[in-house]
From TrEMBL, chain A:
It is a multi-pass membrane protein. It comes from Calorimonas adulescens. GO terms for molecular function: branched-chain amino acid transmembrane transporter activity. The chain crosses the membrane at residues 12-32, 38-56, 68-85, 91-109, 116-134, 154-173, 203-220, 240-265, 272-290. PANTHER family: HIGH-AFFINITY BRANCHED-CHAIN AMINO ACID TRANSPORT PROTEIN BRAE, HIGH-AFFINITY BRANCHED-CHAIN AMINO ACID TRANSPORT SYSTEM PERMEASE. The lineage of its organism: Bacteria, Bacillati, Bacillota, Clostridia, Thermoanaerobacterales. Keywords: Cell membrane, Membrane, Transmembrane, Transmembrane helix. This is Branched-chain amino acid ABC transporter permease. It is found in: Cell membrane. InterPro entries: ABC_transp_permease (IPR001851), LivM-like (IPR043428). Its main location: membrane. One of its GO terms (cellular component) is plasma membrane.
Automatic annotation (TrEMBL), chain B:
One of its GO terms (molecular function) is L-phenylalanine transmembrane transporter activity. The chain crosses the membrane at residues 12-35, 96-118, 144-162, 193-213, 228-252, 264-280. The keyword DNA-binding does not apply. Belongs to the binding-protein-dependent transport system permease family. LivHM subfamily. It is a multi-pass membrane protein. The lineage of its organism: Bacteria, Bacillati, Bacillota, Clostridia, Thermoanaerobacterales. It comes from the Bacteria. It is found in: Cell membrane. Its main location: membrane. This is Branched-chain amino acid ABC transporter permease. The keyword Transport applies. It comes from Calorimonas adulescens. One of its GO terms (cellular component) is plasma membrane.
């Protein structure tokens, strides 16, 4: 059994590396043009955002809609480091992610007393306050935006940071910490009664989620040469939430599929201009009406299921 | 002093408009626990309905207001029937996502149909200023119209909620949906009426904004919608006087911040106040603290 699991992990690792190498070669040889590589990188960033938000919304069950604000902290911090101090991307990424997790901590500690929609509104408020902060800060360009950020994000960076995000969050959820988080989601009062320190786990999950949102923001900033506060408003938070809900709250593979679907949809509809958002919103409504729990619900998609073997079905396999 | 009084007047006008939108939020939230993000766009729809009634059909203020209210009431009921009703038993977040979807649909549909340009609302009231208290306070006709309409609407709403059968049904459903159903209240119809009344109030706010700021455009509902929601939460969501108090507070504070500080801080300050109030009083200023049942 132990050997089997190890073998499976090894095979997954091989698959991850092969997928990377194939795309990398295709990009280098020019088979995948700049437009498609841009969207592939964006896809990785969106997956990071969706998976990290799913930790808070799906597994911890805390309704948070300020993810774009946390993302912007990572984006701006890292951009300042590379633009003003010529730091390499690795340093900017880590510092950006850390400052976002600090922001997540600042959001989490006071708002944890709030429940449900009230928590959602408070996190939305924090996200907007962060946006106004950058909007009024002239060293980062204010409302005009922060220009001239070096383009350092490559497919390699985006892909491996994304893989790292998924691995860390997946392992967190499958650990006893993650089990505690799921217990809090299912019934907070019962979890508290069973001796789970709910505050501690909430803060932990918020901080980890914010960390990866910050990393995603850093990659985002270094992919696009310019960032503006308006790109991180509550509509962006809704966008990330849409990916999570579309895939299924409480399913990591669901979040990945949701993020990929939203990115593809946006790319496919991009030539339609105003009509794009109308179609997007209609699809969103139809999806919710016919499958309100999302594509995957709380089940994970595994290779065993595809091959028809009875795998580790059920919650977060 | 003069400037301060003037800011207060402007703040109260803006606040009255927020309060009208917040009433719709609070009623819908009170009855089906949904943050109806599309409410701000209903307000946009109301503004456009009023705009066309006045500029294209040359109707007066009152008929335009009534037409706009009717259109929005129907739109609100239609949206509820198509998008929210099938999801009553689904997880709450799916309904919220649907509301966001409806909001995006109305905004972008509006951009397609009405074009993204800002339209100038025709002037229908004389531009005249009254000085009272020896010139300390200056009131424009627009300010007076906004206050009067707001007060009339509040009286009508108060009458509807506390003196009519449908109001009684609304209060019953918001107290306990299942028990109200068992007692013979038609829950679906009641929810439908709630949407109609809330949307009609948003329409009033839309027409008033058109008159007050002389402009309408398809994305005008986003920020006021959010601000009105803050106002509703601030006063205690589900409580009608709370929505009015919250709306006036947000309006006044915003005007003061814009008048004395930096207008860019306006949005941030509104949210900061909301968070502080929520931390001190999680159920809002007029809300009662409910103990959670195990």
């Amino acid at each position: 059994m132990e050997r089997n699991a190890l073998k499976k992990d090894f095979m997954v690792l091989i698959a991850i590396v092969i997928f990377y190498a194939v795309i990398q070669v295709l990009m280098q040889t020019g088979v995948i043009g700049p437009y498609y590589s841009l969207n592939l990188i964006l896809m990785c960033i969106n997956i990071m955002l969706a998976v990290s938000l799913n930790l808070i919304n799906g597994f911890l069950g805390q309704f948070s809609i300020g993810h774009a604000g946390l993302m912007s902290v990572g984006a701006y911090t890292s951009a300042i480091l590379t633009y003003y101090y010529d730091m390499p991307l690795a340093v900017a990424l880590i510092v950006g992610a850390l400052s976002a997790s600090l922001a997540g901590l600042i959001v989490a500690v006071p708002t944890l007393r709030l429940k449900g929609d009230y928590l959602g509104i408070a996190t939305l408020g924090f996200g907007e306050i962060i946006r106004v902060f950058f909007l009024t800060n002239d060293t980062v360009g204010g409302a005009k935006g922060f220009f001239g950020i070096p383009k350092l994000t490559t497919w390699t960076w985006a892909y491996f940071v994304m893989v790292l995000t998924i691995v860390v969050i997946k392992n967190f959820i499958n650990s006893s910490y993650g089990r505690s988080c799921i217990a809090i989601r299912e019934n907070e009062i019962a979890a508290e009664a069973m001796g789970i320190n709910t505050t501690r786990y909430k803060i932990l999950a918020f901080t980890i989620g914010a960390f990866f949102a910050g990393a995603a923001g850093a990659l985002y900033a270094h992919n696009f040469y310019t960032i503006q506060p308006e790109q991180f408003n509550f509509m962006k938070s809704f966008d990330i939430m849409t990916m999570v809900v579309l895939g299924g709250q409480g399913s990591i593979t669901g979040s990945i599929v949701g993020a990929v679907a939203v990115t593809l949809l946006n790319a496919a509809l991009s030539s339609l201009a105003a009509l794009r958002m109308v179609i997007y919103s209609l699809l969103l409504i139809i999806m919710m009406l016919f499958r309100p729990q999302g594509l995957f619900g709380i089940t994970e998609f595994t290779i065993d299921q595809v091959l028809g073997r009875r795998g580790r079905l059920g919650k977060s396999a | 002093m003069e400037q301060f009084m003037q800011q207060m007047i402007n703040g109260f006008s803006l606040g009255s408009i927020y309060a009208l939108i917040a009433l719709g939020y609070t009623m819908v939230y009170g009855i089906i626990k949904l943050i109806n993000f599309a409410h701000g766009d209903i307000y946009m729809l109301g503004a456009f309905a009023g705009f066309f009634a006045i500029s294209a059909f040359h109707l007066g203020f009152i008929p335009s207001l009534i037409i706009s209210m009717a259109i929005c009431a129907l739109a609100g009921m239609f949206i509820e029937k198509v998008a929210y009703k099938p999801l009553r038993t689904a997880p709450r977040i799916s309904m919220l996502i649907t509301a966001i979807g409806v909001s995006l649909f109305l905004e972008n549909g509006g951009l397609l149909v009405f074009s993204p340009s800002i339209r100038t609302f025709p002037t229908i009231f004389p531009v005249k200023t009254y000085s009272i208290f020896g010139g300390i306070v200056k009131l424009t006709v627009k300010d007076i119209v906004v206050f009067l309409v707001m007060i009339v609407m509040l009286i009508i709403l108060q009458y509807l909620v506390y003196r009519t059968k449908i109001g009684k049904a609304m209060r019953a459903v918001s107290f306990d949906k299942d028990a109200a159903g068992l007692m013979g209240v038609d829950v679906d119809t009641t929810i439908s009426y709630t949407f109609a009344i809330g949307s009609a109030l948003a329409a009033v706010a839309g027409v008033l904004v058109g008159i007050y700021y002389n402009s309408v455009w398809p994305l005008m509902g986003i920020m006021p919608g959010l601000k009105a929601f803050i106002a509703a939460v601030l006063g205690g969501i589900g409580i009608i006087p709370g929505a009015v108090l919250g709306g006036l507070m947000i309006g006044v504070i915003e005007t003061l911040v814009a008048g004395y500080g930096n207008s860019l801080y306006r949005d941030g300050v509104a949210f900061a106040i909301l968070i502080i109030v929520l931390l001190l009083k999680p159920s809002g200023l007029l809300g009662k603290n409910e103990r959670e049942k195990v």
